[in-house]
Amino acid sequence: MKELKVEGLTKTYGEKxxxxxxxxxxxxxxxxxxxxxxxxxxSSLLSILAGIDFADxxxxxxxxxxxxxxxxxSQETSFPDELTVLDVIFKGDSKQVQAVKxxxxxxxxLNQQPNLASAQQRFxxxxxxxxxxxxxxxxxxxxxxxxxxxxxxxxxxxxxLSGGQQKRVGLAQVLIDEPDLLLLDEPTNHLDYxxxxxxxxxxxxxxxxxVVITHDRYFLDRVANRIFELAHGQxxxxxxxxxxxxxxxxxxxxxxxxxxxxxxxxxxxxLAWMRAGAKARTTKQQVRINRFENLxxxxxxxxxxxxxxxxxATTRLGKKVLELKHASLTLGEQTLFSDLDLLxxxxxxxxxxxxxxxxxSSLLxxxxxxxxxxxxxxxxxETVRLAYYTQQNEEMDPNKRMIAYLQEYAEEARLANGSSxxxxxxxxxxxxxxYTHGTLxxxxxxxEKRRLYLLRLLLQQPNVLLLDEPTNxxxxxxxTILEDYLQQFPGAVITVSHDRYFLDxxxxxxxxxxxxxxxxxxxGKISDYLDEQAQNVTLKNQPNIKQxxxxxxxKEKVKKKLTYMEQKEWETIEEEIATLEETIRxxxxxxxxxxxxxxxxxxxxxxxxxNQSQLDEKYERWEYLSEFAND
Length: 631
What we know:
alpha/beta; 6-stranded mixed β-sheet; 19 helices; 20 strands; 44% helix
């Protein structure tokens, strides 16, 4: 069994200690969810495990087999722009992966120039290499992964892809490589529900180990069997999935708080004794004085989980908020929506979700008056004070200090209870200690920048919030607090998201983009909608019961020989079985050589399933007939 052992791992950046003397063991088939507040070092830990970054000191902190392989998907997938998708996804060093890469390149060349002798020779040599290394299964698995991730054109250059497409290509690369340890940093970003569901099932069956950073709590529930929480420079392990972690953490917090309350009570008693004039006249009294001093030093040692307290004030919002009338939007040749009527009321909780690239962010841009409609009308209420949390931070000068960035908008913040606090106090409530307030924005982690950006928006006292994929860069704890805040937020909230857990918490109605300009409304939680969709697919795929003969109850065998028709059937059934087996063999052979033609691959898979089903039926029939054939 292959394992990775880590002992005494320490990492600092300047004066900041990310983690100190971490030790843990990653077993084969572990599914580890790594969680913690942004800025605590989760991505840095993965980067060190992947060999991209290094721990402090010269001591070797890793123990692993010599042939132990590690695959790493970072948040920002980066490969040279000139590489083709094929070059990227078959970047692994294994001989089988390299054989598949050469085979796919040779096949592409042969398809382009079928009469070229050198192309024919190259393909023959590549095919021989595939046979020698028995790499056909790797090739088939690669085609399945690429198809599920929606990657079809393998000759595109990496630089020509969108950010979301690049992330999918990076994910495909590490999955196809099948390393002993998969390190995935936010793998569900830019994936739709169908692909996330497939990825959950794929990783649950993965033969190696997995460490994943993700904000998707449903994903952690369905994939993880261990949770590592990184906080205050230390790593705490919990057995089970995310739901189990929440339960265990709550119990540990309760026990720790009980112990802290007992220490406080004892301290008060000892303080009263000290104030009464305790003197170290005896050894016994001196021991008690020493115990008091020790107790005083160890008070408030319980480090509660950091949290964001969002109780900022908002401005009054009238009944008239946002309305679209007969709205249509066409960008280029793509119609994103047409004749859309949408009324946003004062306490609206609308989730916008669906296929990538279908127009969800464009709709938010329309509502924010940043993008003009092709046809129709946008009506904005007079009292609307809108804050738009976009996917990219806006107006963040990397050379500006955090506190100055906020003070451009306000010197103090009004709270919902009518009081106020300084920007410095507000930063502290948002997990930025006072000594960090002079930090340049350029030195913050991606998650810390997003938290600061969110704080700036809320500082403006909006009464309408537009949130575009807020879960992509915020940690789970920040999301939990944001969810609680949105539930008591008195204004309207419109959220674009693929995070099922988040939408279940904050959205009462869903607007679903199904692609090609098709939209639908659903009143209820997104998880209920997805369950209904899955049930509809299951029913659709079930055979028509009316066309099936109802199986008769099994009876005891009483007959001794075949009927005339059964005898005729027996005489031909073995030939029919042989024909089906040959057909299946030919289909499987063609599947191995169909190259980049994924449409053809899907057709062949359907044919294969149908023939296999017929073969199974013939085998069952052969077993029955054989019982009487020789009587």
